[in-house]
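quick one, two chains, predict together pls
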Amino acid sequence: MSELINELPPASVQAQLLQVAEAQSVPAWMSSLRLAGAREWRAAAWPDRRTELWKYTPLAALRNRQFQHASLSQPAWSATQALNVDAIRLVFVNGVFDASASSPGHAAVVRFSDADAQQQALIARHLGHVATTTRHLFASLSNALVADGVLVHVAPDTALDKPVHIVHVAVPQAEPVVVSPRLLVVLEAQAELELIEQFVSDTQEQNGFVNSLTEIHCGAGAQLRHYRINLEQEHMLHVGGVHVDLWRDAHYRGFTLAEGSALKRIDYQINHQAAGASAALDGIYLPRNRQLLDYHTNVEHKAPHCTTSETFRGIVADDARAVFNGRIHIHPQAQKTLAELNNRTLLTSDRAQIDTKPELEIYADDVKCAHGATVSQLDPTAQFYLRSRGLSAIQARSMLSFGFINELLQAIEQPAVREHLHAHLQGLFAEALPGTVTNP
Amino acid sequence: MSEQVESLIRKDYSAGFHTQIESDTLRPGLDEEVVRFISAKKEEPEWLLEWRLKAFRAWQEMEEPTWAHVSYPLVDFQALSYYSAPRSMANKPKSLDEVDPELLATYAKLGIPLHEQEALAGVAVDAVFDSVSVVTTYRAKLEEAGVIFCPISEAVHRFPELVKKYLGSVVPQKDNFYAALNSAVFSDGSFVYIPKEVRCPMELSTYFRINEVKTGQFERTLIVADEGSHVSYLEGCTAPMRDENQLHAAVVELVALDDAQIKYSTVQNWYPGDKEGKGGIYNFVTKRGLCHRNARISWTQVETGSAITWKYPSCILKGDNSVGEFYSVALTNNLQQADTGTKMIHIGKNTRSTIVAKGISAGRSQSAYRGLVRINAGAEGARNYTQCDSLLIGDRCGAHTFPYIESRNASAVIEHEATTSKVSDDQLFLCQQRGLDAEKAVSMIVNGFCREVFKELPMEFAVEAGKLLEVSLEGSVG
């Protein structure tokens, strides 16, 4: 791999990040994926303002930091933010497995490093095959740096009795580290799973970079409920991707929520590979202070009779910037498609910014597609109404902000996730409005 | 059902005749010499030549944009001729009676008999044939009102201060690849100036036609509406049928000073190429308007022609309370490709913009709406409403939407909605069951679909647009 790095100018971010691969120790069966990833990463043009997919999101934050491979020593952390749910839990601290915080294992959930020959074959078959790098550059970096990860494999006609909960904890280290969490979910035909991915950090100022990649294969008739909660401290850099392949009549129900950071970019790539598949994705983005948060979603309708419904709501406060791009691409053979995308954003400060672009690309005629986007502020009449009922201005704003996203929160099926977020957001809205006064 | 539609889409281009007129055409190729030649031919002042050369040098450094959702073989800019004029224009006609009868017959075939228009419609027409402005009708009456409406080449001599002040003020020479090209080689076009507090007594109109083989048309339109004035301007275009692709790279600049209103309507019917996609016009146009305080600019366009359309009429809402509007119907058939839309840049306070875009794709065509709504930080209380709908006829066409929304001000309210659907079998069945044939039924449904835009067009144009749509759609129903 070293000769691949040498071809890049040594100061470039690409070379810098690829350097990390040198320090890793990796099982031999992964080396081909790593090499292919490194090759692709090296060959890719570094995105700038003229790169459509990165038009509004500068990658400058990645520069000027000499990222290291996460050291193996176990840094200390406190699990204040982790979700309390009865689940099969795996906890990683800066990418390193923390056995003491994890719950006893389950045959369906295994780390790549513990995989037996059969599981290795399964991983080799799917890993790097669901994810495509054409619209997600950092997937090739993830391939280049893949060393460990988690495989969740649910056998045909099986449902796990507990959700799978994967927690990634970030803690600052003396030298900034790059962490590449990798998750592979393989649901066989008619399998069912509830999956919670959580990214947290302790409250110290972070200096690391997380490049996470989740690949999901939903076999025929499989059903997945997937929560991805991204609440790290605001100096953490995070580029993440979720790639989903849906086969015949498979159903994916996704929920994602994130706060911003110096650089946070999350890509969802959903592929309807066979007829009858359906996907529903709800998202909430809440950047504030000087944070940046970028959601890119892309749904490929490659087969007929598939449906997509996507709802994203965002509240952008202070000097924060939010970016949303929702693309739906209907291929010529994808007749009878129903697709809907809805994006609404509230700006609560004059310095807050939003760049949104819902895209439709349609090559089939017998389809019904719609998208909508709105940008506005809190309704002054609604605020007035609440104040006339005796609420303070701050309470009124907090209540209305909450109401704006509550619809999506209420739709969360997993009570533990719902309650956790409810409590967290209530705290967030109260804190975002300094000098809260009690009701007179 | 769809076979009927198919058979209906097929219909020949009725403006595809070629007029046998002797003309002076410059050798193909583009270099500084050509720019100097054009400038000299028009006896332009030194500053304009410098202005052109500056644009030409900038153009040489620029690259053709590739971001639009269209694909076509690249244009060989050295194979084109940048100037062509009907020979009889060498000694300019003073009135209509002196104009080459062949030329006039051409316009009559296109449905704009100049004489008749002068008498009946009361529309003042400036007709541009290849590179030169042929005749401007109704001039006397306009001058009475103080309105200036003349070819831009003439305005350069008669009103140099006005031209110098506003030319390139909205679309600078280096704005984009095609605007730079146009700035370097623009041949003619219309110039309009409406004085303060004047309501232009009639609709103004320009008719463009590309006649000569292997020429590009690069006209430049500049409309200045002084404070409190009002003008409505119509533009129409056709070209003969050719196997080669022809280039049309125009620039339109509108300046609406305080309290002024400009309404700009286009019916674009350039030759779209044949059923196999051979030939047709490449329509790469830059249109932009600048609104000062309380001003209003309204773009209405019906785009049915051209092999490739690349066109984004825009409004810069600089003054407080200014209003920008964009109403568009873009119809593509056979192998046509259109990437069109608008930009609304909100700078002033309480600025408002409305966008209604209707795309109709038939045959194997691709049509895309690409729009930008940008609210700058100072645009307190800005408001935008966007609606773009696509209608698909046939299962081999495509319809795409790329709306960019950039908001920098919390008090702004922006709404965007888009839908895509097809002419449903149920709708067709219902109409046919009531005794309409399939073609009529589709035409009626399409007309209904476009109604919001057509009602913005001046009356004569609305009728023409409806007919044009019908003709362009013929053979697309089945």
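Residues 2-274 of chain A form one domain.
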